[in-house]
# Entry
Amino acid sequence: MAAKGKMNVEHLGGVARLREEHQKKVSGDYEALTERLQTLPDQLSYDIMVPFGPLAFMPGKLVHTNEVTALLGDNWFAKCSTKQAQKIVDHRMKYVKSEISDLSKTMKNFEARVGLVRDLESISSSKGDYVDIREDTENTGDIAVTKGKQRIAHKPNSKPKLDAVLDLKEEDEEKEGSRKCTTTEEELWARLDELEKQEELQDDHDRLSYNANMNGEDTSSLSSEEEKEGDAAPAVNGLAHSEAPPSSGRKADEEAAAAEEDDDEEEEGSCLPTIFFSHTIEPKKVRINTGKNTMLKFSERKEQKEHSKRKNKNGHSNGHSHHELHKITTPVDIYRLFVDVKNGEPVPRKSILKSRSRENSVCSDTSESSAADFEEGRRAVGRSFSHDETTQSDTSDGVTEEESPTAVPLHRASRFEAFSGTVVEKEPMPSAVPYLTISPPALPTILERKQEEVAPDVAPPQQAPKRLSKFKAARLQQN
Amino acid sequence: MAEALQKKLKAEVDKFTLMQKDVSKSMSARQKLETQLAENNIVKEELDLLDTTNTVYKLIGPVLVKQDLEEAKATVTKRLEYINGEIQRYESLLKDLEKKSDQHRELLSSLQQEYQKAQGLAVGKV
# Structure
């Protein structure tokens, strides 16, 4: 704007200057003319050299020195005496001078305007608008970081990083929540994230549809869920999608979880575009074949995506997982098998299943962020926890909203080893909840998360060791 | 899609430039009229100052034609009125042209956006 203003001013200034110069020249001419008029009638006649064309002169006389034919303007002439001519000249001079003054006034006006615009620009640039933007970038940066980490997740080391990221995110969220001025920008960012998620959801949907065909599940429901999720949560979900295996099936759980997640995500998304990995639901492995299983798997994926609220569904999903562990209808089942094979605990699953890593890392925005912290601690213990987390996330959601954890532990025991780990988590969750406030390994609902956000930084380290112990105990018990 | 949009965009841009030319033309004509108006005002004032003793001439080509003072005054007055009318006409014309050009501008911008979207989509697809 300032540049344009400057240009205009310069342009106008140039024009005004030109006119001013012209007027000045004219006035100079008129002054000379005045002088001539005054001296002319002094003599009756003058001997002069009359110019004949541009190259020749002729001696001659200037007579009727008092008669002057003056141009009035617009091709009108008037014959008058020198005195009258003088009057005309004076008149014209006045006019020219007024024109000059007008031009200079307009020039000053424009210059003032340009200066004002420049000042405004400088002021706006130096003000805190940028601050707000910075805030947004921080959040987005965190998200980006977390997202990246999430993908790496499988490695246990990555988890702690994710936790850190989550902490940051949480902090950012807090900050953002406190700042209302930035909300608009944040909202924009959230909106951007949502859009990204939507895109990712669509991609996943495509994948899922493909998988669904394979599995025979309802991909549409998944996609719808995804869409819901996408709409609600920021981009993190997109990441989850990428990581989530093509479990198209598990719609029922997912749908439920998605619905929950969506709600949660929406809540969370408003504050910050954090990545919400909702471990939701039950461990992936458990439900593979049947709708229930599939749902579980999908729910896990959702967690990856960052849905957090599997509140009610989690409990249900857990139950399903038990008896369908062994069925392999989707790749997830295979994963689970692998996991079991590796360690017998869900640990391997973590590596295999991105959701785990994400869970631990940061994926879940809502509950995961806080849960992530916990998850990381848990991961250290073993993947099993991660599974538990997934399940717990589901359960945690349930815990926050309901108290399904108890149900989950039962489920876990029946499931594969991996599941058992998840189940274990659920058990401690109820106990952990009171002091942790942050959702237990499972992704806590948004509500929980919020609390967690406040506390996670402090709690996670403490909780991690505790959780491990509990989980181990639970697992031991189950085993 | 993108190509069609591009063609549309070009056509609209051409139309817009034409309109801009018209606008500038009418603006310059109006400016000329304004200067003439000012000059005629001066002439009128001068004529008023003159008395019948001086003769008034009108320059028609290379010839200075003697004119009556009253006649000259009347002529100048009539010319003034005529110039005023022309200026008003041009002003209204200018307004219409500006409105049209603004509309066109908006259309252009929207088309541009569409085109960019289409391009973006194409890029994405590719």
About this structure: The mean pLDDT of chain A is 58. Chain A touches chain B at residues 69, 72-80, 84, 87-88, 91-92, 95 (CB under 8 Å).
